Amino acid sequence: xxxxxxxxxxxxxxxxxxxxxxxxxxxxxxxxxxxxxxxxxxxxxxxxxxxxxxxxxxxxxxxxxxxxxxxxxxxxxxxxxxxxxxxxxxxxxxxxxxxxxxxxxxxxxxxxxxxxxxxxxxxxxxxxxxxxxxxxxxxxxxxxxxxxxxxxx
Length: 153
Hints:
By secondary structure, the chain is mostly helical.
């Protein structure tokens, strides 16, 4: 019997920005020109603590890919958790680097060029070159497969 599939785990973390106004009054205010007491109020705004941050974690179907490549092998839930953490971390690093590259050329859209550059920057040496080659191969296969599907319809 096949193991039960775990549902997608979506974790959203948010940090609230707090802004407070504090009124400070002096206990013994200095005397005015005609001997009357002056009350001083001072408003001190508290600086923004942090900007709102949202992080979505999705589970990647590693088990299905493993069954395609090695049908007799299995993976433990702990190992699956580690692989998912690794994949999410790498995705975030590549996306962040691609966003920086996109901002350098004042673009608002991520193109394949930024993704390739980010992969080369994040993954060192030969690993980056092989990753770019495999990515190009996957995109070519996808494009040729989608062309065949559109011709059938």
